[in-house]
Amino acid sequence: MSHVEISVLVDADARTVEALSQLLAQVSSSARPLDAGRVREVMQTPSTSVLVARLDGKIVGMALLLTLTTLARTTGYVEEVVVDHAARGQHVSTALMTALLDLAASKGIEFVDLTSRPARTVANGLYQSLGFKLRETNCYRHDLRQAATSLHGADLN
Ligand SMILES: CC(C)(COP(=O)(O)OP(=O)(O)OC[C@H]1O[C@@H](n2cnc3c(N)ncnc32)[C@H](O)[C@@H]1OP(=O)(O)O)[C@@H](O)C(=O)NCCC(=O)NCCS
């Protein structure tokens, strides 16, 4: 069986950008196409770590750890967890998320949060198997793309 290697992305050639792009499309249908500039920007963001999983040297999965610094505490937040279709069911995501939790602990983070739609059965099973506990909270999002349109409209009148 192939060995999974997990690492934090520190540079990205064209093949890496393409691999991340393919992965992103499998977790977000609304994501903009990924380019090298965006990958560089994310890698240069000190509060964001991009963990990648490689099987036989090829990137097959990723998970992002964001560090949120507030007055109360420093919290970890997980985004964009995905394993390529062809590599699923081999515990790649378990290895990725275990490494992510180790990285969070090494940064002094006490809590790691994430959200996952209930319909994502496998992802929810994964997180629970790793010790994540369901929290009762309301999850909100404000879409500033629409707000910008209506604000611009108001400015014009
Ligand atoms: C979710 C996802 C990352 C899992 O990747 P994976 O590498 O195939 O998962 P693993 O092989 O590591 O399985 C991890 C655990 O998930 C859980 N799991 C797997 N299949 C499951 C299923 N059908 N039902 C419930 N839990 C399941 C199990 O706990 C499993 O561990 P176990 O086999 O030891 O019991 C992958 O399916 C994926 O990329 N899905 C699309 C994107 C997505 O949903 N991302 C999460 C966004 S929140």
Secondary structure: number of strands = 5
Largest beta sheet: what is the strand line-up? Answer: 1-2-3-4-5
Per CATH, the architecture is 3-Layer(aba) Sandwich
The helix/strand series, from N terminus to C terminus, equals EHHEEEHEHH
- The poorly predicted ranges are none
What small molecules does this complex bind? Answer: coenzyme A
Please indicate the percent range of residues in DSSP E strands (runs of 2 or more). Answer: 15-25%
Overall number of structural domains: 1
Give the integer mean of the pLDDT values: 93
Biggest sheet layout: 5 strands, mixed
Characterization of the model:
Helix content is 36%, strand content 24%. The protein is an alpha+beta fold and 157 residues long. It has one domain: 3-Layer(aba) Sandwich (Aminopeptidase). Strands 1-2-3-4-5 form a five-stranded mixed sheet, sandwiched between helices. Helix 3 (92-106) links the parallel strand 4 (74-83) and strand 5. The longest helix has 15 residues, at 92-106. The termini are far apart. The relative contact order is 0.13. The model has no long low-confidence stretch (mean pLDDT 93). Bound molecules: coenzyme A. The site of coenzyme A has 20 residues, from strand 4, helix 3 and helix 4.
